[in-house]
Amino acid sequence: MPADPREVLTRPAPEPDRTVAYGDHPDQVADLRQPAGTGRARPLVVVVHGGFWRAEYDRRHTGPLAAALAAVGHPVAQLEYRRTGEPGGGWPGTMTDVLTGVAALPALAAEALPGRVSRAAPILIGHSAGGHLALYAAATAPATVGGVLALAPVADLAEAYRQDLDSGAVAALLGGGPAQVPDRYAATDPRSLVPTRTRTVVMHGSADQQVPVTMSRAFVAAARAAGSDISLVELPGCEHFGLIDPESPAWPRVLVMLRSLHDDH
């Protein structure tokens, strides 16, 4: 385990096998990784990166995670999207990009990696702000999502605004707080969009300093009460970045949960 948990964000990873575009903007792309081994085509795993929706964080920091998933047999797409601080990012472009990309990627990946990717609805793995976007996609366009593994997700935007996570990140995404733009929160906040019918697993570390585990506890409880097919896996002592680090003690549990979603698919 690295001394600095953030080391995974800059750790080198193998280059992707292909990059495909789902739109005309330079950030409307995804990096594809071919699964190791041989065998039948499998559903795509779409990785939605975090970084509090900000432009300074991009898909490259999920390279170690994506390479590790491909190494155990999953076809992987690292989805990029427009982010706050750049033209078209924030409301509504960030959300629109994710919906468009998730819907388009199974076919794009099946064409780019022949025989390795099925056109079934993909499994989404979203970390932090990417967890929010994965939950949002499943709630908004459930036919395009086969399952969600949300890793330390920002699952309650109104609460994240109240707690001022990452110094105004939610206000930057939506253009204000719940009192200023209530319709935007109603349309994009996972806490407002339950119940959802997509099978969902939320994983969160008890030692998370970036996104408090209490947010996932409250979200999953509310979603289950509303009738969602959702469960929470809480990892004692795990911090925010261990969930996306293949060298962390949490990684085997992440793989087990992903496998459970595939088996349910």
TrEMBL record:
Keyword Hydrolase among record annotations: yes
Pfam families in the cross-refs: BD-FAE
Alphabetically ordered keywords of this record: Hydrolase
Annotated segments matching region Disordered: 1-21
All copies of domain BD-FAE-like, residue ranges: 31-220
Keyword Transferase attributed: no
SUPFAM superfamilies recorded: alpha/beta-Hydrolases
InterPro entries hit by this protein: AB_hydrolase_fold, BD-FAE-like_dom, GDXG_lipolytic_enzyme
Domain of life (superkingdom): Bacteria
Gene Ontology molecular function, alphabetical: hydrolase activity
Protein name: Alpha/beta hydrolase family protein
Source species: Micromonospora coriariae
